[in-house]
Amino acid sequence: MAIEFTEAELEEFKKIQDKYPEKQASLMPLLWMAQNKWGWLSTDVMRYCAYLLELPLAHVEGVANFYTMYFKKPVGKHHIQVCTNVACMLNGGEEIYKNFKEKLKIDNMEVTSDGLYSLEEVECMGACGMAPVVAVNEDFYEHFNISDIDEFINRFKA
């Protein structure tokens, strides 16, 4: 598989890049585009991003490693994130996370054997007033109830 954006994707990135005063400033949106296309940021994908922005690979890797929104290994089709920070913890976040681990039979940042689910314990989703919070890909579920886990998992089986 060649690591290259299509002409249309490169045009889209050019529009994004034009919003910034320097090329380097568009690194995060570029990484997001790359992750959306390839599902995660392999070294080859990060090398391609470095090439596009004329940056050292180490700089791109540093940014990708700093932010948890960038995946450095493959994740499931439905990436489940469970907040266990203070507000969520006090409202059952840790129990929810443990229950997901048991039901899916995977640990933190692991993928189910069918590739359908991955699980991640996260520190904060910035929605403390709606705790506990669970996210699947980019959809947030607030005031999540542990009793809904089975139905929740079945909803994403397709």
Describe it.
This protein starts with 6 loop residues before the first helix and ends with a helix. Helix content is 43%, strand content 11%. The chain has a four-stranded mixed β-sheet with strand order 2-1-3-4, with helices on one face. The chain is elongated and about 50 Å long. The chain is α+β, with helices and mostly antiparallel strands. It has helices at 7-17, 27-38, 43-53, 57-66, 86-90, 93-104, 149-155; strands at 78-83, 117-122, 134-136, 139-141. The chain folds into two domains: 7-66, Orthogonal Bundle (Arc Repressor Mutant, subunit A), CATH 1.10.10; 78-155, Glutaredoxin, CATH 3.40.30. β3 (134-136) and β4 (139-141) form a beta hairpin. α2 (27-38) runs antiparallel to α3 and α3 crosses α4.
Features:
single chain, 158 residues, alpha+beta, Arc Repressor Mutant, subunit A, Glutaredoxin, 2 domains, 4-stranded mixed sheet, 7 helices, elongated
Helix/strand layout:
Blueprint: H1 7-17, H2 27-38, H3 43-53, H4 57-66, E1 78-83, H5 86-90, H6 93-104, E2 117-122, E3 134-136, E4 139-141, H7 149-155
Parallel strand pairs: 1-2
Antiparallel strand pairs: 1-3, 3-4
Helix pairs in contact: 2-3, 3-4
CATH class division of the largest domain: Alpha Beta
Q: Could you give a short account of the major beta sheet?
A: 4 strands, mixed
Rg (CA only): 18 Å
Percent in strands: 5-15%
Alpha plus pi helix count: 7
User: Terminal Cα separation, in Å?
Assistant: 26 Å
The structural class is alpha+beta
CATH architecture of the largest domain: 3-Layer(aba) Sandwich
How many strands?
4
**Silhouette:** elongated
